[in-house]
C-alpha cells in the first residue's frame, strides 16, 4: 500500500514537460488509489467484533435483529451488519427525593435505590422493546418507582412508617416488581432514607421523651408494687410464725392441763380404792423426827394408836401435869 502511494506521489510531481492532461490523470489515479485503500481498511476492520463475558451483542443487519452474539470473537458483513452491546452487569438507579405524603398528611422525602440487570435469555426482547437498559430505565423504571412509592407510602401513617420500616420497604418493593415487570430482573429495592419535616421530627422527639417518662413512671410504680408485695409477704410470714408459736404454747398448756387432770383423776381413783394411801405418802415424806412439844390429848403424827388396844402399865404413875416426851425432859 505504501509503495502504491509513493508511486502516485511521484506521478503527481512529474517533470514540467508533461502535458496538462497527463497531470489530471495522475491526480485521479492517486485519489482512486486512496479511496480503494480506505475501502479496504474499512472492510478489514468492519468484518469482525469481540464480545466481553459480561455482555451480549445484538446483531443487526440493515436495522433488523438477526441474532445474539455470545462472548468471544465474531465476524459480520461490513457495511450491512452492526453490533449493539448490552451489559449483563447489575445496574443501580438512585432516586434522591421522592416527595410523598403519609396517610395522616405528613410530607416526606424518600431516598430509594433500585438494583436491576438484563438477563441473557431476554436480551433480544430488551432491545426490541426499549433499545437497551437505559431505555427501559427511562420509560418504565423511573416513572413506576416514583408512582408506586408514593402510593404505598400514602397507606402508612407517619409513625407507622417509622416504626415498621421493614414492612414499608417490602411493600414498596412488591409494588415496583409488579408495576415495572419486563425483560429485566429487579434484584433489590431499598428505602435508604426517610425524611420528614423539621416540625414533625421535633414533635416525634417530644413524643418519644414523653413515652420514656411514662415508661419510667410505670417502672417505678411496678417497683413500688413489688416492694409492697414483699412487705406484705414478710408481715404475713411473721404473723403466721407468731400464730404458730401461740398455737404451740396453747397446745402445750392444754397438754399439761390434761396431764395434770389425768394425774388428779388417777390419785382420786387410787384414794378411793385405798384410803391408807395418804398415810403412805406422808410416811414416805417424813424425815423420822417427832414433834418437840405436844399438847395434852394431841396425837402423834403418822401414828394412829387405839386406846382400846393399848393398856396402861399398872406400875406407871399417873402424871398430874402435861405429858413429857423424852425430848421435853432432855430440854429441862
Overview of this structure, please?
The protein folds into four domains: 1-45, no CATH class; 47-87, no CATH class; 88-196, Tetrahydropterin Synthase, Chain A, CATH 3.30.479.30; 215-268. It is built from nine helices and eight strands. The chain has helices at 2-12, 20-45, 123-130, 133-153, 158-163, 165-179, 198-273, 277-285, 326-331; strands spanning 48-51, 55-61, 64-69, 72-75, 81-87, 91-101, 107-118, 184-196. Strands 3-2-5 form a three-stranded antiparallel sheet, covered by helices on one side. A three-stranded antiparallel sheet has the order 6-7-8. Strand 6 (91-101) and strand 7 (107-118) form a beta hairpin.
Proportion of β residues? 15-25%
User: What is the number of E strands?
Assistant: 8
Which strand order does the major sheet show?
3-2-5
- Report the principal-axis shape: rod-shaped
Structural class per helix/strand content?
alpha+beta
CATH superfamily of the largest domain: Band 7 domain
Q: Helical percent range?
A: 40-55%
